[in-house]
Amino acid sequence: GVVLTHGNFLSNVDSITEAIAIGPKDRILSVLPLSHVFEFTTGFLAPLSRGCTITYVREISSREILLNMQKTRTTVMVGVPLLYKVIYRGLLSQIEKLFAPLRAYVALARRLGSSWPGLARVLLGSVHRKFGGKLRYWVAGGAPIDPGIIRGFGSFGIRILQGYGLSEAAPVVSVCTLEDDKVGTVGKPLRWAQVKIEEPNEAGVGEIWVRGGSVMKGYYNNPETTRETIADGWLRTGDLGGLDAEGFLTICGRAK
């Protein structure tokens, strides 16, 4: 097991809420198990620290989630890519059932929405009402998300912010923000995280190493694996990636 201290969690929460502003007016819908550090930190501790309202779904199904979003008028939700994929497919399926003139209207609105998200929220208000009408953004993590899904929802005026992390880092290392977003990346490192690419190849891709206040104390009763994973404070993530000229981190696979 991963040993995380209160200090690890506080470091992560402070950096998350600095990068992505949330407050007492936000209504968070929690859909992932709290036993996992991803939901525990991003769906519980971070919102709690800023006085948000948190609602927990009874079951993880698209129907239950949509009903809760409508009932609570959710503003923010954290989820895994598979969840957003299911919701997106369901949305497209409903659009396909519309009469031809309405489908043409939605297609035009989406083309406009790809360039002007605010306009999409007006032209496609009925879509936003399906999600409660007050949605600010969704956050995706836990696995890579198809950039096409991010762009697809973006054409409806719905933002998905992709992040990256691992349990050993309590867990968030980087995240795209409303102000600083690049589709296809996992955003820039949070304030707590010093990130370096170890032994990069010609394309600038190497193992991602992380150092800072959120790095775990070690593996429970496993000093040997701890020494193999943490060297001079640097957490060897085992993930391959690269940093571009603007500081955005991209994940390319696994090193081991």
TrEMBL record:
Signal peptide segment: none
Segments forming domain AMP-dependent synthetase/ligase: 1-220
GO molecular function: ATP binding; long-chain fatty acid-CoA ligase activity
The protein's name: AMP-dependent synthetase/ligase domain-containing protein
Pfam families, sorted: AMP-binding
Keyword field: ATP-binding, Nucleotide-binding
GO cellular component: membrane
Species for this entry: marine sediment metagenome
Lineage: unclassified sequences, metagenomes, ecological metagenomes
